[in-house]
Amino acid sequence: xxxxxxxxLTLVKPTQTLTLTxxxxxxxLRTTGVSVAWMRQPPGKALEWLALIYWNNDxxxxxxxxxxxxxxxxxxxYQVVLTLANMxxxxxxxYYCAHSPRWNxxxxxxxxxxxxxxxx
Amino acid sequence: xxVMTQSPATLSVSPGERATLSCRTSQSVSSSLAWYQQxxxxxxxxxxxxASTRAIGIPTRFSGSGSGTDFTLTxxxxxxxxxxxxxxxxxxxxxxxxxxxxxxxxx
Lengths: 120, 107
Fold this sequence. Notes:
The structure holds two protein chains of two kinds. Helices cover 0% and strands 49% of the residues of chain A. Chain A has strands spanning 3-7, 11-12, 18-25, 35-41, 48-54, 59-61, 69-74, 79-84, 93-100, 109-110, 114-118. In chain A, the strands form two sheets. In chain A, strands 2, 4, 5, 6, 9, 10 and 11 form a seven-stranded mixed sheet that branches. In chain A, strands 1-3-8-7 form a four-stranded antiparallel sheet, with no helix packed on it. Chain B is built from no helices and eleven strands. Chain B has strands at 4-7, 10-13, 19-25, 33-38, 45-49, 53-54, 62-67, 70-75, 84-90, 97-98, 102-106.
């Protein structure tokens, strides 16, 4: 049974850095082809892909946010961490992590989502 | 960036009727196109991947078609639990992108 669960501070001030941890179970970040991604969804709006990390530590980022984003993994702790620097109120939304089983496959398991609010 | 468009923005359908949702991409994604269903307060649920393959546990009333830049999701006979927002998502080109969504509501 694959599950993913986010954790981290959900109320941040403008200019601060958001750090979210995705703790996984039911699969390994060592498995060839596996990736974990982060997406977000502003209130009432569509989904937006942010970043992705593969089993081999290859990292991909949404270009317009790349300078602010970092994705890392701790394979032994079954965790994937996302940081987003210089937070702004427009970054408010629900943040999800999700699993893909192999290259060129979409995300089949998602976390429940965590609501992040950026406010002074 | 591959831009996704979905039509219509809202589709009002009666239970038992057929729903047809459209997704277009600004450049070819081959068959690397997925559909997600999302209900309020819930994460997206994978419905279709590879443009036409149903995900695990998805009823046969859901079907997908298309390739290249034009895709369709069809729900043959809407059940009450099918009323939701549907997003298309391309994973063939970087960066990954999602469409703006089609809301299927009760007529």
